[in-house]
Design a protein that fits this description.
Blueprint: E1 6-9, E2 25-32, H1 57-71, E3 76-79, H2 81-86, H3 88-96, E4 100-103, H4 116-134, E5 140-141, H5 154-161, E6 166-167, E7 188-192, E8 195-199, E9 204-207, E10 210-213, H6 217-222, H7 225-237, E11 243-246, H8 262-269, H9 275-285, E12 287-289, H10 291-299, E13 305-308
Parallel strand pairs: 2-3, 2-11, 2-12, 3-4, 5-6, 6-8, 7-13
Antiparallel strand pairs: 1-13, 7-8, 9-10
Length: 313
């Protein structure tokens, strides 16, 4: 069944770009997974082997926690259910430090490679582990590898049915693994048959007619920091908050070396030794909070976008 895409904006005297006189609050997000759990290593590491490999996620996440503590920043940690099940003390430490706990699925499987009921089962298992650890509802989700795309919009309905109120999985760009090019660039509400939920897309900087991904992961490591700062400042100058993202393994240049092939190895290992210093520069140059703190500021405004994604295919 075809989908209809429409954009509607609530009327009001305020403009999106003029919602604040001070620095814009942006979202700092962390995808908590170990180095061997990334999508790019699926061809050389099987999930059945995860328990046999050296885990470094606790130590690497604590490096990020200390950085955020020293800068007085709270963020949203999207935690893999597999990690939470084995290291509940880490989840409690993140929560005790004042950070928001979000769900990153259980087995780190891209959404569009699952059947809807497989996705629901994986989502529930991860959410339930996290909620049992912290004793609070978990309502924010990020798909592994940002894999809510045109092929998997049905996942938004399952998120709504399972009580999630916010997603941060859509990347409005072109990529071989992810991307929903027509998505709005700013945080917005997505209207679906099951209801509506917040979407906080990943940041892109439009230049030369192309939406360039920026401000997180391999892009933070690959681009010169001056370029990252320029692009993110340009996004804020347009009145839009952004959500930067980082993985704990990206602050670990001494992690064991795996062999996924030259392209995937480059994506994973490039400039690991520079991530920590660049993250620290971001914390100095921009104002950050959790995803829901940013959304709370946006909800006070009178002009916000709703994206109607129609009926699921």
């Amino acid at each position: 069944m075809n989908e209809t895409l429409t954009t509607s904006v609530a009327t009001g005297p305020a403009t999106f770009a003029a919602r604040t006189a001070g620095p814009i609050l942006n979202a700092l997000t962390v995808d908590v997974e170990d180095y061997y759990q990334v999508t790019g290593f699926e061809n050389c590491v099987f999930r059945a082997e995860w328990d046999q490999l050296e885990s470094r996620v606790v130590a690497n996440t604590k490096v990020i926690l200390e950085l955020l503590r020293s800068h007085g920043v709270r963020g949203t940690f999207f935690i893999l259910g597999w990690v939470a099940e084995r290291f509940p003390a880490l989840v409690r430490a993140i929560h005790a430090a004042g950070h928001e706990i979000g769900c990153h699925g259980f087995w780190h499987r891209v959404v569009y490679q699952q059947a809807p009921e497989e996705f629901r089962h994986d989502l529930r298992r991860a959410r339930d582990v996290l909620q049992d650890v912290i004793g609070l509802p978990v309502t924010a989700f990020r798909a592994p590898c940002f894999s809510i795309t045109r092929r998997s919009l049905w996942a938004l309905d399952i998120l709504l049915e399972e009580g999630f109120t916010c997603d941060s999985s859509v990347f409005p760009t072109v990529h071989d693994r992810y991307g929903l090019l027509e998505a709005p660039l700013e945080p917005h509400r997505i209207r679906r048959p099951a209801g509506s939920l917040w979407e906080f897309p990943l940041p892109v900087y439009r230049r030369l007619g192309h939406p360039w991904p920026i401000g997180g992961g391999g892009y933070l490591r690959l681009y010169p920091y001056a370029l990252t700062r320029y692009g993110l400042r340009s996004i804020n100058a347009q009145g839009r908050p952004f959500a930067v993202y980082v993985h704990p393994w990206e602050l670990d240049p001494d992690q064991p070396q795996l062999s996924p092939g030259p392209v995937l190895a480059f994506r994973h290992y490039v400039n690991l030794g520079r991530t920590k210093s660049r993250l620290e520069k971001l914390l100095q140059d921009f104002r950050f909070g959790t995803i829901h703190e940013v959304l709370a500021e946006l909800e006070t405004q009178e002009q916000l976008k709703t994206w109607d994604l129609g009926i699921a295919a």
